Amino acid sequence: MDGLQADNAGVGGIEDNDEERYRALAYDTALSTLVAVAVYVVVKVSLDGFRQWRARISVLIVGSGPVGLTAALVAVRSGKVLKLTVLDERYRAALLCRPQQIALDPRSVKFLLGLGVDFDNMEGCWHSEHFFTRIGVFQEYLLSILEQKKLKVDVKVQLGTKFTEEYLRRIQRTQWPRVIVVADGSCGDSCSVLGISSDYSVESCHAYGANATIERLDQRQVPTPEIRAHRLYFDLSAYGVEALREPRNPTAKPGFHLKIYGTFRNRYMALVCPASDTKMVRFLRHTANASIMKNIFHQSFNVYKTDVEPRLNDVTLHHMQCSRRLFEIQLSHRRISAAFIEGDNVAVTVEGEAARVLNFDTGCGVNLGMRGLESMGTFIYRTATAVDQNDILEALSAKMQHSRQVAETFKQTGLPQSMYE
Ligand SMILES: Cc1cc2nc3c(=O)[nH]c(=O)nc-3n(C[C@H](O)[C@H](O)[C@H](O)COP(=O)(O)OP(=O)(O)OC[C@H]3O[C@@H](n4cnc5c(N)ncnc54)[C@H](O)[C@@H]3O)c2cc1C
Prior knowledge:
The chain is an alpha+beta fold. It folds into 2 domains: 57-199 and 335-420, FAD/NAD(P)-binding domain (3-Layer(bba) Sandwich); 204-330. Helix content is 42%, strand content 23%. The protein contains 12 helices and 16 strands. The protein has helices at 2-54, 66-77, 92-96, 106-114, 135-148, 165-170, 190-193, 279-286, 290-304, 366-373, 376-384, 389-420, and strands at residues 57-62, 81-88, 101-104, 125-127, 130-134, 154-159, 179-182, 200-215, 227-232, 256-262, 266-274, 320-322, 327-334, 338-341, 346-350, 356-358. The strands form 3 sheets. Strands 8, 9, 10, 11, 12, 13 and 16 form a 7-stranded antiparallel sheet that branches. A 6-stranded mixed sheet has the order 6-2-1-7-15-14. It has a 3-stranded antiparallel sheet with strand order 3-5-4. Helix 2 (66-77) runs parallel beside helix 10 (366-373) and helix 11 (376-384) runs antiparallel to helix 12. It is elongated. The termini are far apart. The structure holds flavin-adenine dinucleotide (FAD). Flavin-adenine dinucleotide binds next to helix 2, strand 2, strand 3, strand 10 and helix 10.
């Protein structure tokens, strides 16, 4: 009996041992699976991180205007660019001698400060938190920063080089850039070289405007703050238009808004009013008599100019050129502002006036181009670290969406901010 009990006890003990062994085995298996998964995740994350950290691409920028050069600065500062090529069809002297002044608004100033632009080291002047400088001074400054970055990034600036099909053909297939930024201005045709549609959306800004320029070679070409005047009315009674008897549109800011900007040598004027159908506006929109607009600009200049610059008189009036009549202000923006060239694996984005342009000069048009560049750093990062084509397409889609948003925001608030306030 005792032996049998002992035997049974032995069988029970063996079962217990087996169960324990199975449990230990299951525990070991689970633990080693967990460790393997953890090691896999850590290795993958580190490899991805390493790949992302190492990822560097080659970028080509077409156009060395203020927008193209700022895009170049964004590219070199992104830390994701190995080789940067910047082109312009103009030679250095022609590129830097343009007479217009640019007015950087507070948002553009903040954006540029973030890119390391040192306004204390640039010829220009501040007024109402805007920075005014000559376009050539700004471009020269950016070219000098790019020069300094040559130690870290392979930067090539090719001035006097036009972007054409021939230029592209000369690049070896293996050397093609991964990103092309087209910033060739409102008259450039680089998009067509790349097969990008030149279809534009043209949208009304619900305002009418006219521009004038005065060139006086005996005056100074130094940065000068802009002058703004609001709620202007013109006496057109000599032409049979009695402005004061007209009902005014209560929702629109009444009257005309005037801006005088540029240097004393190259003065520009912009006159704008919210769209309305008053007798005066109708008259100024359709008049065939070009001297009426000229008179308005002439008188306005003499009233609002700075004290230190000479008045326009009948003798000097021929220095002025202006719109013949008021026209509707329209914003044109490309329907396709970003594209992927399949086969060559190139992502293209269109920036500045090549992407969106007004038919009216507000005197601070460059800011519209700067807005588009606010998404450039992320776009370069996403393209450089893309694992596959889908990632690149997503980056392009986000870029295009941002470009549309820039145009939409301008349509809603751009003119009021640049002219009415
Ligand atoms: C008369 C006038 C007055 C203005 N006044 C003001 C002002 O007071 N304040 C302000 O903020 N803005 C002003 N602007 C607007 C301002 O000049 C523009 O907003 C700004 O220049 C646009 O910059 P961008 O770089 O997009 O184009 P752009 O400055 O036009 O630069 C494009 C560059 O691309 C180059 N290019 C073109 N095609 C090719 C090609 N195929 N290959 C290589 N290179 C090419 C061109 O040579 C050019 O240098 C004024 C504009 C004008 C016309």
